[in-house]
Design a protein that fits this description.
The protein is 8% helix and 55% strand. It is mostly beta strands. Strand 1 and strand 2 form a beta hairpin.
């Protein structure tokens, strides 16, 4: 309530308005959105992707043997034990151009469905340092109350990495933003 009193109320799709918040999921990180028009916006996340976190990833088949793994730490990597997977060992950035449809769901509070496309970059440290670059789609729904300067969202994003090799991935998350 204190934030509502010191900030202008959130207006759904107001050109020039900027929101900053946090997204949980895959990726997890800081999320920003900038309205270009009343229906189009740029959206970005800077954070980390959980790819490989909590999974055993061994580049040498002998690593499944506990004694071999203990005696060959340079050959055997286990994200559950070695602690890789989150933080700057696994950096994520994406930016999407989004189109919002406020006319599909009729409600007293704006609930736009949105879709768009963008680019995604990831730096992943597991067996070796690798940078990934790909294209992505984005589909989601936002809950945009006009009485408070926050919005909440859920989205899914199929990703097709092109470099260093073609591979498909799926991102998704929930989040909230404060509007300035």
């Amino acid at each position: 309530m204190a934030l509502s009193a010191i900030s202008p109320s959130h207006a759904a799709g107001k050109a020039g308005q900027f929101g900053l918040g946090f997204e949980l999921g895959d990726p997890t990180g800081f999320n920003g959105k900038y309205w270009l028009t009343s229906k189009n916006a740029l959206d970005f996340v800077v954070g980390w992707n959980s790819w490989g976190y909590g999974r055993s990833v061994y580049r040498n088949g002998n690593c499944y043997n506990g004694n071999f793994r203990a005696n060959n730490p340079d050959l055997c990597y286990d994200s559950r034990v070695d602690g890789y997977g989150y933080g700057w060992d696994n950096f994520h950035f994406h930016m999407d151009y989004l189109v919002h449809r406020f006319d599909i769901i009729k409600a007293s509070i704006p609930l736009p469905l949105y879709y768009g496309a963008g680019v995604q970059y990831e730096y992943r440290k597991y067996w070796e340092d690798i940078s990934w670059l790909g294209v992505r789609g984005n589909f989601g729904i936002a809950f945009m109350p006009t009485s408070i300067p926050f919005d909440f969202f859920f989205e899914l994003a199929p990703v097709m990495f092109i470099l260093p090799a073609p591979i498909f991935d799926l991102n998704g998350g929930i989040g909230a933003r404060f509007w300035f």
